[in-house]
Amino acid sequence: MSSPTDAPTDRPAPSPVADAAGVAAVVYNPIKVDLDAIKRAVATAEAEAGWGETLWFETSKEDPGQGVAKQALDAGATVVIAAGGDGTVRAVAEVVHGSDAALALLPSGTGNLLARNLNLTLDNLEHSINTAFTGTDRRIDIARIEIRHDDDSVSKHAFLVMAGLGLDAKMLASTNDELKARIGWLAYVGAIITALRDKNQLRMKYSLDGGSTKSVRAHTMIVGNTGLLTANVLLLPEAVIDDGQFEIVMLRPEGFLSWVQILVKVLWENGVLRRTPIGRRMMSKEVDALNYVKGREIVVKLNHPEEIELDGDGFGTATAFKARVDAGGLRVRVPQA
Question: What is the pTM of this model?
């Protein structure tokens, strides 16, 4: 694997989009969206903004977004609207990253985690579309990852929210996609129970920012660019989407009481107490079952292949990976103040 050493850089404050006409492209997952409704909203916003005719690109199983996003950029799109779930957003961002175009979000999935962490509207089509045409560009971090698989091949990807080994990756691998499409996040319940029954531990070595190598056993490792999950669960309380760093958590439960400690820490302390000054003074110290670290780059080597996920999608098994933060590497369209 290569050894990128990008460090955080100073970034300008968000600035309003120029008045000059642009061209939008919509990259949409046909399974996730009401295309007719989107086209009506886009036609209205496009006319009011005085922009050119919007371009339309459909994702597929073979091309979840990268190929059509490149087509959109080649066709001159200045804003690429990702209409779909977290997987569509991740795939489009992987291509828009580093270009002159901005990414706009039309949340249409189960988690919509990037939109949640940016505090964007989740269920207002017109508002999301208007933001794409008239909003402000905000620079956020994007993570780059190289995964070495059990056949010794290396694949390169981007992610915006989290990469995970252990519980969440196994949960996703056990989730029925058809059931997920029908009932949303409730489809994960059975998969979570299955994953919790798995007694296998991650055995790995990791290093942060080129530092010393540490050996650890853990049930789960999450590398987070953001920290908020669905149901307002704050898993990574110090993960900030534009600070040039990951927050990484390792879950190391040693039985039922350890799981209780984890749930209290994540659901009660992170989710409730941390939100007020008085509550923060009431918080306990870190617990042994839940270890947090921070860094710009992490290298992980596993003793045996493990399932890995990026932004809620499985990416097979990994024997090692290297992830780094590209600070301010992606422009995302957000509402003007």
Answer: 0.83
